[in-house]
Amino acid sequence: MKFFVLLSLFVSAYAAAGNSHLVCYYEGKSYLREGLAKLIISDLEPALQFCSHLVYGYASINPTSNKLVSPNEKLDLDIGSGVYRALTNLKKKYPHLKVLLSVGGDSDIVDPDSNKYLTLLESSNARIPFINSAHSLIKTYGFDGLDLAWQFPKNKAKKVHSGIGKFWKGFKKIFTGDFVVDEKSEEHKEEFTALVRELKNAFRPDNYILGLTVLPNVNSSLFFDIPAIINNLDYVNLMAYDFNTPERNPEVGDFPSPIFELNERNPEFNVNYQVQHWLNNRAPATKLNVGVATYGRAWKMTKDSGLTGLPPVASTDGAAVTSLQEQSPGLLSWPEVCSKLPNPANQHLKGADAPLRKVGDPTKRFGNYAYRASDDNGENGMWVSYEDPDSASNKAAYVKTKGLGGIALVDLSLDDFRGACTGDKYPLLRAIKYKL
After folding, report:
1. CA-CA distances (angstroms) from residue 170 to 155, 174, 178, 264, 428?
2. Is 187 inside a domain boundary?
3. Measured between alpha carbons, how far is 29 from 49 in angstroms, rounded to an integer?
4. Taking CA atoms, which of 67, 106, 299, 363 is between 20 and 30 Å from 57?
5. What region does 270 belong to: left with phi over 0, alpha with psi -120 to 50, or beta?
C-alpha cells in the first residue's frame, strides 16, 4: 500500500512539473533592429522547444475606432511574408506550442491626459469593436488567443526614507495629499471585469485562450477584481520586476526584482508580495506565472555613491549607459551585461571599459548585482542589477515551491539568443526550463 501511495505522489509531482508553463515573449520591434540585435524567425526557433506559449507583441488600440490593430501592418499582416502568419505557422513544426497575440505591453503610445485603455473600458459601445476586431485578427491569422497586457496607470516610485525623511514626508502630505494613481480606479476595475467577461464569451465557441499580463508597477488591488475575473482567464503573468529603475529612482540604485522583501524597503516591491496578493484573493496557484526579465538596470555611480556597491546605492545619477541593443537608457540585455563582467577580453581594460565587480546572491532571495565605483574624477561609475542563469533558476525554484503555473520570460530578444556569452543560445530560457 505504501508503495502505491509513494508512486502516486511521484506521478503527481512529475505531471505537475511537466505541465509547468514557460511563456515566452517576442516583441516585434526586435525584428526591426539592425545588426546582431535583430531577432528574426530563424533565430527564434531554437527557443521554441522550451516554450509552452509564445506571446507576440504588441498590437495596439486605434483610439478613433477602438479596434485592435497592428502598429506595423507591413511587417505583421502581409499574407505572404508577414510575421503574424510566420509565427502561427510554427505550430506545424512545434505542435505543443500555443501562439498568442498581445495588446499594450507599455509599447502602445498613450496620451496621458486621455488614456485610450481607460476610455475604451468606460463605454460598452467602445468595447464591442475592440472585441470583434480581436476575434477577427486571431481567427484570420491562426493565433490561439489574446494576451491582455493592459496599460493601466503606474504606481508612483517610492523612496526609502530615514526617520527624519519619514517625518518630513508625512508633514508634506498634510499640504500636498497622497498621489492618486487613478481617480476612477473603482469604475475602471468594474469595467475591466466586464471586458474580460465579454472577451471570454466571444472566445469560448472557438476555445481561444485569454490571458492577462499585469505590467510592472501596476497596482493589482486598484484595477483587478481578482475573484470576478480569474475564472475567465486561462493564465495571469505577474511582471514583478522593474520596481526600481534609473528612470523611476534616479538617485538611488537598488534591486529591480527581489524575490522576497528587503529590510527597510517598500514591502510590496518583491515577487512574493505580488504572488501572495493574487493567492489571497482566490486566484488558483496554477494560473499564476512569474515574470522574469532578460535584462538588467544600470545606474551611474558618483563620488558620493561609495566604494562598496552595497544596495541601496545612494547618490546615483540616473542611467549609467544607453543599451546599444534596446536603445533604452539604463537597460542592458543579458549579453550586454555579461560582456561587462570579468572575462579574458576585458581583464586589462581601464576606465569605462574596465570590468565590473560581480556580487552574487548566496541567499537566493534578492538577485545579483555588479558595479564599478567612480574614479577620482567622478566618472566611469556603474551599478547594475540583472538576471543571469543562476538567478533565473532561483525564480523557477520559487515557482515550483509555491506550486505556481510557471514562468513568463520577457523578452526572448534580450536573452543571449546568439550564444555570445558562453556559446549556449538562450541561457536564461534554458536555465528556467531545466529547473521547472
Report:
1. 18, 7, 10, 17, 42
2. yes
3. 23
4. 299
5. beta
- The whole domain housing 234 covers 19-294+388-435
State the Cα–Cα distance between residues 186 and 263, nearest whole angstrom. 32
For 151-198, write each residue's pLDDT tens digit: 999 998 876 543 444 444 444 443 434 678 999 999 999 999 999 999
Choose among 420, 242, 424, 428: nearest CA to 335: 420
How many residues are given for the chain?
436
| Predicted pLDDT at 151 | 98
- Across-strand partners of 313? 253
**352 domain-assigned:** no
Per the DSSP assignment, residues forming a β-bridge with 291 are 408
CATH number at residue 279: 3.20.20.80
Task: Please give the average per-residue pLDDT across 374-399, as a whole number.
Answer: 96
Q: Which of 210, 213, 259 is nearest to 400 (CA)?
A: 259
Q: Tell me the pLDDT band of 50, cut-offs 50, 70 and 90.
A: very high
Tell me the pLDDT tens digit for each residue of 83-94.
999 999 999 999
All three cell numbers of 334, joined, read: 543579458
Query: First vs last Cα of the chain: how many Å apart?
Result: 30
The answer to the question of residue 6 being in a domain is no
User: What pLDDT is recorded for position 79?
Assistant: 65
Binned at pLDDT 50, 70 and 90, residue 222 comes out as: very high
Q: What is the pLDDT of residue 311?
A: 97
Angle at 212 between CA 206 and CA 216, to 5 degrees: 160
Residue at 118 is within a domain:
yes
Question: What is the count of structural domains for the chain?
Answer: 1
DSSP characters for 321-348? -B-TTT--BTEEEHHHHHHHSS-TTTTT
